[in-house]
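G., the chain you wanted modeled:
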Amino acid sequence: MIGRAAAICFGVFLAASCSAAVAAENDCGSEPCAGGPWLSLAGNWRFQSAIAQWSVAVDEDGRFHAEGPRSVTIGGEKASYVSTLSGTISHDHVALSIKADQFSLPNFVPGPATICTGVPAGPGRYEGSCANGKQRLAFAFIREGAAAP
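Predicted structure as tokens:
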């Protein structure tokens, strides 16, 4: 039986696009990894790591942006701040940055932005790592409603 990606590719996409789509279909069973080139990535997605979670709306261009108040305890004092997550997603990868700003504690200088990159790891799922010069952290970027691995 011909796969869905191969059937759609027939006479529609360039050979390179078809090869990638068929490979994605083969790697993830009958569902294309993170959605093939014919599926929109727009919709609700979730960034998830060991220390943070975000829900974001991805637009038709694959861009997303979210910000909100957060808090952290530093040296026994609770500080509030604004955290921003923004980035882009494509069928090949996801790239994003997380920035903390507007700390309530005086003389606190926020560190550099945390940069995250990931690749498709299954239907509606990307996995990768984040780094900010001080630490590395694994993350997943998951389409809301996608089945857990």
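Residues 81 and 103 are 4 Å apart (CA to CA).

Shout if anything looks off.
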